[in-house]
Known about the structure:
Blueprint: H1 23-34, H2 44-47, E1 60-61, H3 63-76, H4 79-82, E2 86-88, E3 105-111, E4 120-122, E5 126-132, E6 136-140, E7 143-147, E8 152-155, E9 161-165, E10 172-178, H5 180-185, E11 191-193, H6 207-211, E12 233-234, H7 236-249, E13 258-261, E14 276-282, E15 291-293, E16 297-303, E17 305-310, E18 313-318, E19 322-325, E20 331-335, E21 342-348, H8 350-355, E22 361-363
Antiparallel strand pairs: 1-19, 2-3, 3-10, 4-11, 5-8, 5-10, 6-7, 6-9, 8-12, 13-14, 14-21, 15-22, 16-19, 16-21, 17-18, 17-20
Amino acid sequence: xxxxxxxxxxxxxxxxxxxxxxxxxxxxxxxxxxxxxxxxxxxxxxxxxxxxxxxxxxxxxxxxxxxxxxxxxxxxxxxxxxxxxxxxxxxxxxxxxxxxxxxxxxxxxxxxxxxxxxxxxxxxxxxxxxxxxxxxxxxxxxxxxxxxxxxxxxxxxxxxxxxxxxxxxxxxxxxxxxxxxxxxxxxxxxxxxxxxxxxxxxxxxxxxxxxxxxxxxxxxxxxxxxxxxxxxxxxxxxxxxxxxxxxxxxxxxxxxxxxxxxxxxxxxxxxxxxxxxxxxxxxxxxxxxxxxxxxxxxxxxxxxxxxxxxxxxxxxxxxxxxxxxxxxxxxxxxxxxxxxxxxxxxxxxxxxxxxxxxxxxxxxxxxxxxxxxxxxxxx
Length: 379
């Protein structure tokens, strides 16, 4: 039998498990194993860490290095064969669950003009953030949305949805974000293909943004009781304009610059129960202070260039690059331009952290609130 130390998680600290192995105890542990049981004190210090211990590591996915591989998939598989033609982002610490960070999945999907993936639905919540191309669209429960660069569109859990590119459009690439790893961890995921493979458009095109315009005014004759936002599409133009106005009249956050959350217009809450999203603007030359918080965060550069320091490591980014910040990792952001704004789109499990009472935040207090960079910039 393999020689295993049961006392490898001992800590010589009052209140923590500190039991040394003895032949009698090891024999006792073996007997418990045969009963599919175990002694808590052999694992207590591991499963109850002093602070979050994320298996995820900070990663930067450079778009210009991935783009050719994403486009090459078009000649290798069809949407019908693949279901969805996507290149997913694999965090080295989360490969077992195909996650980009924590319990969040992300991938880059590509479609050519005239292509349309079949209609389906699942328990996982999802969104799309358009990266490039013209003519993309999504249909959600009969609502069709036309999409442009940096638009953010929801496909909430349980809704029928399909994606495509108009025949007069151009090749399109967008980021898919889902909570698949979380829903699978909860053992609650279902997947279903539409019996007709495609759904009918039952409402005027872009009625979501027409009815729920994202202003302070809400339509009086449109009650909404579902747990996700009725504003399926959040357009880039109004989003950026709101950020600019906010940045001009407020100092914003010392840790995030001018940060604004996408919200459900009916209640001001997150767009979906398990996925939150935000857009932040870093003014020219702005360098935020470092902080950390529980929850996993995946950023995509919507505009500009700069760098982030995550746990002492510098990651230089430019437009369309994607990077992740694992839970409880110190991070700070900097706009590399002295004249132009930089904007970061982010999605996270923040609604889950807050709903479960698990959200916690801490500022970095040394070195003026910024981390010392321990390594050279990413090559």
